Amino acid sequence: MLTPGTTSWSDTALVFLVAAALVFLPGLAGGLLLRLRPLAALAVAPLLSTSCLSVSTVVASALGLRWGVLPLVVGSLVTAAVAALLGAIAPRVSASLAARRPGPSRWLERPVGPRFDAVWWTTVASALVVLLLVLVTVRTELRTPEALPQGPDTIFHVAAPQWGLESGTLSSFEIGRFNFPTWSGFYPAAFYAFTGTIALITGASVVVSTSVFVLVLVGLVWPLGCIVLALTLLGRRVVVVLSAAFLSVAFTTYPYMLMGFGVLWPNLLGQAILPAALAALVGVFRALGRPPYAVADRLRSGLVLVAGLPGVVMAHPNALVSLCVFGGLLVLGRVLGFMTRQPTWPRRLAVLGAIVLTLGAGAMATVVLRPASMLGTGAAGPERPTDLAWLDLLTFAPRLTRPLPLLAAVVGLGVVALLVRHRGARWVVPALIAMLSLYWFNIAVDTDVTRWFTWPWYNNAVRLHSVAILPAVVAATAGLLALVDLVARLASRRWSPTVATTVAAVVVLGAMSLDVGAQLDAHRHILHRYFHPKPPDSWVSGPELLALRQLSTHLPEDAVVAANPWNGATYLYVVSGRHLLVPTEKTNTPGDRRLLAASLDRVGTDPKVCAAASRQGVTHAITGGQPFSWAGSRVEEYSGIDGVGSSPAWRRVATSAPFTLYERVGCAAGS
């Protein structure tokens, strides 16, 4: 658990190494045993590791095993064994499929040069430079690894894995019991599987483990995924690596806004592994020889995709939906190409009819299958005037973030380049347009009709815009590549092609680097909003965490504490492990919890309240603190807890500003 004020960034080297090892090693071993080339294996490793870890937690829980190092090792070894078996079989199957018809085959991997060539070393170096850039960006706003984004969901995301370690399970089918002891169902818990396991191995708090894990996702996993996807779509060139690496962390919405907004950490994980999953999908459906590079041959690309799907699902459903949307557009492009190759118009019309029916069925499914809870998520109605909504869209600046006009211009150039120069990647253009269109309709219109299509992303502008960043990165990479090739063509009149390309890359990327200052300013601006808000927009501050920690020394280990979650006192669990009657502001459910929240101050006079307190084991209460800004009338739901200080059934134990701890000393007669 967290001991506030005891950990600095310089203390997290071991935590970082363990986090990186957990993210990369299981998947890297699996990828290499599947006989992927080293670069591909490195890029898809986090995707495969996410599946390995999340599935292992589910299996361990189903077998009644307490989660720990042993189930982790066994799960990793099983993953490696399966990968080795498939790695031995897959080449033979691919060769057999290729032998069915003469000539080049889509089933065979095309040679792309040495395994450790300039592209490999550039990728490794670029990943390290990008990681350093992320650290420089983040370090100024997250001044310690104990820093918490001040959002309503933060308490669950740091408390749930702590509860999981205490309970011995980090399974997606068990983690929801933190909120409700009798809960059953599914909740994507891959993020907690990572943060909880990192804390288990290193002894660091879940809060510190989470901060470090987020840096690994943002600084390593996401850039490597973007690099391999760009190589797959645009060709295996050093300039593609450099451009994709730089652009992967150039936008604000993803990854930086998702580091604080919500906070949507599970969504951050899902988006980080999405490029690798999409690269594998491209490998399955790529046209012959286009693009010239892929994760592997068609069969092994498919195996990577199938192996990675559990990780995508248990990372976040939005990642799966986004993969389906982008993958659907990719497949649609291939089918349209197949249609144009048909020798007769009747055949072309038949294929076109099948396309129309499929698209119609998909659109109908979004309407018929929409869950009412997701359809109604978020306040209805536009949040921005139409003209400002267009400005936000065109400058990649949602929710009052700083505009990025130069990046937007490069993306626009890239859209043209994709359509003209990269036939196999044209689907990226409708992918970008689709997600930005959904974003625009969400912030400028947001009617019941538009929600038919935005509900998979909870009708949330930030979620929608974050998904658009991936095709934007690919498009911008294509734009920079086009500029480099143009400058190289001009420079080749004086120098050799190699020198001309080098000069062109230096000129173009050097010019783009002049915009780094504006980008850093935009990124730090959004991080500051969530990590250093004004007091009314803060859930719990550092001094308040220290106060809760101090009060916890007066509590027995088996205490159950009632507190108003809107005042931040529920972070008591994070700093002490003491259990709360109402763990988060979303868990004041009908029954004992709601009764006690409203009436706990009457425990000494109302037998029903006394009986409920006894059933729930409530022994203490905490009052004080400042309600979160948009709590509104919901604070009144906890008036019974806030009022215990006026009841003779409660004795004041200690005060540590702004909180006061009380102990229950009375209960109504006849209960």
UniProtKB/TrEMBL annotation:
<keyword id="KW-1133">Transmembrane helix</keyword>
<feature type="transmembrane region" description="Helical">
    <location>
        <begin position="212"/>
        <end position="231"/>
    </location>
</feature>
<feature type="transmembrane region" description="Helical">
    <location>
        <begin position="40"/>
        <end position="65"/>
    </location>
</feature>
<feature type="transmembrane region" description="Helical">
    <location>
        <begin position="349"/>
        <end position="369"/>
    </location>
</feature>
<keyword id="KW-0472">Membrane</keyword>
<keyword id="KW-0812">Transmembrane</keyword>
<feature type="transmembrane region" description="Helical">
    <location>
        <begin position="403"/>
        <end position="420"/>
    </location>
</feature>
<feature type="transmembrane region" description="Helical">
    <location>
        <begin position="495"/>
        <end position="514"/>
    </location>
</feature>
<feature type="transmembrane region" description="Helical">
    <location>
        <begin position="12"/>
        <end position="34"/>
    </location>
</feature>
<feature type="transmembrane region" description="Helical">
    <location>
        <begin position="118"/>
        <end position="138"/>
    </location>
</feature>
<feature type="transmembrane region" description="Helical">
    <location>
        <begin position="465"/>
        <end position="488"/>
    </location>
</feature>
<feature type="transmembrane region" description="Helical">
    <location>
        <begin position="319"/>
        <end position="337"/>
    </location>
</feature>
<feature type="transmembrane region" description="Helical">
    <location>
        <begin position="72"/>
        <end position="98"/>
    </location>
</feature>
<feature type="transmembrane region" description="Helical">
    <location>
        <begin position="295"/>
        <end position="313"/>
    </location>
</feature>
<feature type="transmembrane region" description="Helical">
    <location>
        <begin position="238"/>
        <end position="256"/>
    </location>
</feature>
<dbReference type="InterPro" id="IPR046671">
    <property type="entry name" value="DUF6541"/>
</dbReference>
<feature type="transmembrane region" description="Helical">
    <location>
        <begin position="268"/>
        <end position="288"/>
    </location>
</feature>
<dbReference type="Pfam" id="PF20176">
    <property type="entry name" value="DUF6541"/>
</dbReference>
<feature type="transmembrane region" description="Helical">
    <location>
        <begin position="427"/>
        <end position="445"/>
    </location>
</feature>
<feature type="transmembrane region" description="Helical">
    <location>
        <begin position="186"/>
        <end position="206"/>
    </location>
</feature>
<protein>
    <recommendedName>
        <fullName>4-amino-4-deoxy-L-arabinose transferase-like glycosyltransferase</fullName>
    </recommendedName>
</protein>
